Amino acid sequence: MKILTIHADFIEFEAKKKAFSAAEEGVEKGKRVRVEECLVVFSAVEKKDEENVQAVMQKYLQEIKNISQQVNAKTLVLYPYAHLSSTLADPKVAEDFLKQAEQKLGAEKFVVFRAPFGWYKSFNVSCKGHPLSELSRQFGPEETISLKKEGKDEPFVFDEKKLTNDEKILLTSALLVGKAVKNLHPKAEVTALGFYHNQAYVDMAGAEIHVDEAASVEEQACSELAKHFPIEKIPVQQITNALQKSMAQDIGKSAVGYSVDGMKVVPLYKDPFAGLEKVKALKVLNQSKVYWKNNANNTQLTRVYVVGFDDAKKLEAFLKNKEEAEARSHLKIGKEMRLFVTSELVGSGLPLLAPNGMIIREEIINYLWELHKDKGYQKVWTPHIAKEQLYKTSGHWDKFGDELFKVKGKTDNFILKPMNCPHHMQIFDSFSYSYRDLPVRFFEPATIYRDEKSGQLLGLSRVRAITQDDGHLFCRVSQIKQEVATIVSVIRSFYSTLGMDKEYWVSLSVRGEDKSKYLGTEEAWKIAEGALEEAARENKLNYRRIEGEAAFYGPKLDFLFKDSLGREWQLATIQCDFNLPQRFDLGYMNEESKKERPVVIHRAISGSLERFMSVLIEHFAGKFPLWLSPVQVKIVTVNDRNIEFAKSVVTLLLEQNIRAELDDRTESIGKKVRDATQERAGYIVTVGDKEVEKKVLAVRDRNGDVKFDLSVQGFVRDVVGEVRKRKL
Q: N or C: which end of the chain has fewer CB within 10 A?
């Protein structure tokens, strides 16, 4: 089953003619139907749905009810839309399905309209344009039937880190919003508080909050600010709500209860709140649906996102920044620049790079290799799958069990690789090395696969096919500091080229109190953590020691950079690993001809290339430095008389490996320039009669500044120089 929902101001549709002889009878041909303020559900019943129609029906009705509640829609339009799928169910089955759905939803006090089945129809729909106005869903009988069998709770984990004042303000604001919801819906209960990027959220059970209630919730929360209720710590035994008690059990001895004006919560953080009087401004942003412990078998919760500040001016700045971020969205710009596409047939979290997007990706990879090739790195390649045993040996089977894509072969069971490192271990282990050969350095931009939850997937920023600019170094303990220093120099060079090196810090991520979550010996961890911290000091990194954030196999240095909007992104990483060499029994011959265990350093400069591209798109708002621009020069002609000269300029640029394109369409020069501007071409060159006569160019840069009468050779030379130097 596939559906596309549109929260609409209105939809108009008209039956034109039958699409096939067995089309629905009793339809008035040519009658125009208009429905105002409605949720339009474009629906395609698929062949596989015939296996268990009622199971699919249950899921279909639930999805419609959930979405209608979120957007506060009381009127529904069920619209059969065969174009959503290429494997449609039998027409009779599909027609009966939609008729049953109409009856069932009508019985639940919805006003339901249904467009005729099996007819060619014209329609006009006006989408409201808010974040929930366009949603798509896909499900089948197997998902619906197996849901209760496959669901698995994700236990809550207590975070020991010390919160900043800003983080405490955020959580306090979320607490206030939870109290406001409870004031409006007395049966509602706060279940969890947490962070989402630079926002906080509160999860509520027993509350259905409609879109138009956001203002009321916010008003109620602001009114609580003036009351200055104390936020009191209470024994966890006083918590009576079943969900919160379950959370406290997960947390264990760290669990502490808090109460504000009788409302009780169990936070996931140590010392989580500021005083109410310290919150000077807050804003309810949006909401979504989540499941308790991320298990679809459990209670569905309403998650409300909120920001809060200790100064009202900070809220104003946040909202201005948010507006700018929305204008820079990589989803929006990616579409305008034709960088990537998504396909329901391919699957969620599996974006497809279009030619323009592939150019950016290749330029990044080529530059990364340029920075590494003179530092002793060697390129390797590994397949996308491997036998299960490889990941059982490495520990990834136990660590990422639920996220692994499993492939059944004719004789063996395989896994789509979730990491490259076990493969690289096998390459190292296949050759003999002495201490003189070390360090050995492998470089591989490779795609790995993890079955991320569908609700977390977004554009390029969160995907299931993840390309890493992966590198693994095999060295001695005494070589760790020097190797880290070399990697740091590469990171600095790379991010300075992008203008992102002005303000960054480094997280030295080490183990937390619960040592059971980590692989390896106590001695190995002490050596690794000490070596990384010493390397951070010697390289004068602005680092902070963060407890509990280490990888399961070793400590790491995570580099956090700010983009042009001041948003912080964890991108580059350096990870020290004594565990995998032991698990794979790796060794080299030392000075005494005895086997000695190497240390493995994992490093990635850009991290996930997909996520990194989404950051770059938004960082530059699509106006990339010339070396990254998919179209470096766009030449537009005023009329046909100018085409020959324009082509000669394009030829000169192409000969210098400049990505140049000619727009000689019979459109107005204004439209051509507008199209090139939306495409974010590096330079837009206008060629008219004057330019042809004088053999010169009129050139517009990315900022809209125009220079006239530039010589062709001079322009080509300047463009080539700008690209080669990778100027910002």
A: C
